[in-house]
UniProtKB/TrEMBL annotation:
It comes from the Bacteria. Low-potential electron donor to a number of redox enzymes. One of its GO terms (molecular function) is electron transfer activity. This is Flavodoxin. The keyword Transport applies. It comes from Clostridium estertheticum. The lineage of its organism: Bacteria, Bacillati, Bacillota, Clostridia, Eubacteriales.
């Protein structure tokens, strides 16, 4: 059984609903899922997982959240993740996904193997929630 850890930050709930749907998809596919707020997550939650997914809103001038998510991610500058399979998800207000492009590049630099990402404008549509479930399923295949 694959172990998926999902770590996210959400102020208004838009990213959280994506996290929940990714979790549902992965569970339906038979995976063991650990769903955590970044404020409660540890490095081991990432290193012990077969697959990881991270979610953040676009904040702080079209970047991922700089108070909690960025410092958490930056820990992996020095901790090896050995090309762990990774999905990224997030929501933006006006940047059209610019924050996600920057985030994908950063994660690749830290040797996460980013295989999928999903971005939505504000609240996800029903169609986007289905995509989030599919992402959960395919991450744990
Ligand atoms: C304080 C604050 C800063 C934000 N900064 C940006 C930004 O720089 N670029 C952007 O596209 N959206 C920005 N947004 C919009 C959020 O990314 C968007 O509302 C998102 O859906 C929030 O996700 P959440 O409900 O999970 O917190 C900002 C929102 C807030 C409240």
């Amino acid at each position: 059984m694959k172990k998926l850890t999902i770590i996210y930050l959400s102020n208004g709930g838009n990213v959280e609903v994506l996290a929940n749907h990714i979790a549902k998809g992965a569970k339906d596919a038979g995976a063991q899922v650990l769903l955590k707020l970044v404020s409660e997550a540890s490095v081991e939650d990432v290193t012990n997982a077969d697959v990881v997914a991270f979610g953040s809103p676009s904040m702080d001038n079209n970047n991922i959240d700089q108070k909690e998510m960025q410092p958490f991610i930056d820990k992996f500058k020095l901790i090896p993740v050995n090309n762990k399979i990774t999905g990224l998800f997030g929501s933006y207000g006006w940047d059209n996904g610019e924050f996600m492009n920057k985030w994908v590049s950063l994660m690749k630099e830290y040797e996460f193997n980013v295989v999928q990402n999903i971005t939505v404008n504000e609240a996800p549509t029903n169609e986007q929630l289905v995509k989030a479930e599919e992402m959960g399923k395919s991450l744990v295949k």
